[in-house]
Amino acid sequence: MKKGSAEERFINRELSWLSFNHRVLQEAQLKRTPLIERMRFLGIFSNNLDEFYRVRVANLHRMLLVDKKALTTLGFPVKATLDQIEVAIADLQQAYGVTFQEVLAELKKENIRFVREDELDAEDEAFVAAYFRRTVRPELVPIMLSRRVKMPQLLDGEGYLAIRLRFQDDKEQLAIVQLPRHLPRFLTLPDKDGEHRVMFLEDVIRLALPLIFRLFEARHIEAYALKATRDAQMDVDDDVARSVMSKVERGLKKRKQGEYVRILHDAAMPQDMLSILLRKLKVHASVSIIAGDRYHNRRDLMGFPDFGRKDLVFPAQPPMTHPQLVKATSVMNAMTKGDLLVHCPYHKFVHVVDFVREAAIDPNVTTIQINLYRVAKNSQVINALLNAARNGKRVEVIVELAARFDEKHNMKVANMLQDAGAIVRVGIPNLKVHCKVILVTRRKAGRIQRFAHIGTGNFHEKNATIYEDLCLLTANPRITGELAKLFDFFENSFERKVYRHLFVSPFSTRRRFVKLIDDEIQRAQRGEEAWMDIKVNNLVDAGMIDKLYQASQAGVNIRMVVRGICALRAGVKGLSDNIEVRSIVGRYLEHSRLFVFCNGGKPLSYISSADWMTRNLDRRVEVSVPMLDAQLAAEVRSLFELLWSDNTHARHLTPARNNSWVEVTESSLVDAHKDLYLVHKDRLAGLD
After folding, report:
1. Looking at residue 398, what DSSP letter applies?
2. Contacts of residue 471, Cβ cutoff 8 Å, sequence gap at least 6
3. Mean of pLDDT over the chain
4. At the top level of CATH, which class does the domain 323-491 belong to?
5. Which helix (H) or strand (E) holds 470?
């Protein structure tokens, strides 16, 4: 390798992502993970891999179409990257298959068993047949393939059965059936002899094949799983004559026609049948054709039933009331007495909802301003905003229509809010609005008072139960005044604002974090104490990575917790000796971003919506906020320390990408997701 080459400076982004998915698979492999949760981790692994193909692999293929010698943003050859991806995924899929069979065997020991259609007795067959006639058959649309009937374009991520009928004269007929997307993937059969039994939906259909195709009087019918993954890139063009909304609508229509990037088929499917189907689908030679087993869309395992077996799932950890809100008459009244740091899923997300609800009915509140990136399907936050608009409040909403995979829902939300009288703005030209902010303005006795929410996670009630996030609730005018400037920018994007306390992308986030790192470098060069603790989801930006290398070489001690992609090569002599990176994948999805800098013994703590990726620093609107309250700053530091102490779900991230476990000593076992819950519980109990 030449000095300063991509291979010397960075870890390939795509391979680092696959290492993250390997960590998800490791959770399914762990014996100490509750058994049904192991099955659900297998579902998460599959869901992640689907998205990887839809977005990352598709993007690499698109780059190759433009330039056969294309390089990734970090300088890795695209063609070689695709080859490495193929090898890495093959290894992961093999490990996945072994793990799946191990989990099935363990479930069987617990009297939970998958059954196939050929394992049913007469009583079971009658039960399944009745379910099929009542629920499944009305949703089925078999398509008979012939010269006159074209093969339908397979929808991205949907499951299909490719079917072949054989007749007495040895003639054949092919057909395709899409698995009904609105039906449960699993059918729970009546317990028998104390055993819980479950079937895949496709096996219900397989049992009914003679009924479905009885018109043809076939002597033999066989069915094989088939699935396509398509390019999920949404091409929103630069046609300024159309509204942003219509651009997104057109982009969604194009997505449905995205190129195939992967075809997954049952390995048992005869080669001649597969060849016919691929020819009818007009699959390009560059598409990955992957042999799987008889069940695809394993992402549905995320919803695998628990059969009431509490001993086989994570122990309940119901969200708690924030200590400062236990006796408070309202969220806003509590905010006037001091800043609050809400930590989901340990704290109740309803505190954020209540904040908006209170503002919606408070007669002194004049304005509610918020930006929306992702929200739940039946969002309580949206209901509160609709109520506020109907109550005559000025409701200003920035809706990011280009939130990947949520565009359609966000358009629906935007229309609902507009119909209720809210002022809706659909983002900023050439910038995604990814921050998570709310500003409430109240006017009483001629005095203006503002209340703010600045967080690391979206306003999404469901995600708040599984995503770990932090949000600051504050009435501090140093913060709320600057947030008012940000909402002015949303209205008049040609005006660039100056922020003293907030770091706002794309204007100051990179510059302000670089300044904090440079300050630590200068202290280290003077022989003073210098360190920084960083927690992000992804670390990819070359400029920030090089700055961290510079800090390491100056003697700054750097600890990092990175959940997903980490392109930084940690622990390399002469490059990053003083950098250690760990990753925690466990019960909750670590989603918060936080930063702590030594600052000469007076640590500075921040939370942020921004990862250290080029898009977050330069092409999105993001907000980082300092913890001006000393107690909250200390809470952020203690949170990082507890995460760093984890030796149950933490792994070392090194250039070897082997996800080696942080050392475990039984006398000091630390499970951050369990212990953090206990920390918050103790704080709540301390009020008594």
Report:
1. E
2. 341, 342, 344, 352, 436, 453, 454, 455, 456, 457
3. 92
4. alpha beta
5. strand 467-474
Fold of 503-685: Endonuclease; Chain A (3.30.870)
List 22, 296, 434, 591, catalytic entry = 434
Instruction: End-to-end CA distance of the chain: give it in Å, rounded.
Output: 63
**Residue 296 appears among annotated catalytic residues:** no
Query: Against a cut of 0.85, is the pTM above it?
Result: yes
Give the contacts of 389 (CB within 8 A, at least 6 positions apart): 395, 417, 420, 421, 422
Q: Residues of CATH 3.30.870.10 domain(s) within the chain?
A: 323-491, 503-685
The residue among 11, 6, 175 whose CA lies nearest residue 77 is 6
Q: Cα(188)–Cα(196) distance, rounded to whole angstroms?
A: 8
The pLDDT value given to residue 165: 95
Cβ–Cβ < 8 Å for 360, 387? yes
Q: CA dist 126 to 5, 123, 178, 189, 209, Å?
A: 65, 5, 23, 11, 15
Assign residue 621 a region (left: φ > 0; alpha: ψ between -120 and 50; beta: otherwise). beta
Class of domain 1-110: mainly alpha
CATH no. of 115-305: 3.30.1840.10
The identity of residue 66, as a single letter, is V
Picking from 590, 666, 493, 580, the residue whose alpha carbon sits closest to that of residue 23 is 590
Range list for CATH 3.30.1840.10 in the chain: 115-305
Give tens-digit pLDDT for 107-147.
Answer: 999 999 999 999 999 999 999 999 999 999 999 989 999 87
Which residues lie below 8 Å from residue 21, measured CB to CB, with a gap of 6+? 45, 48, 49, 52, 92
Q: Give CA–CA dist 516/606, Å, rounded.
A: 11
Give CA separation, 529 vs 554, 556, 557, 581, in Å: 12, 8, 9, 20
**Bond into 323 cis (ω within 30):** no
Complete DSSP assignment for 27-89:
HHH-TTS-HHHHHHHHHHHHHHHHHIIIIIIHHHHHHHHH-TT-B-TTS-BHHHHHHHHHHHH
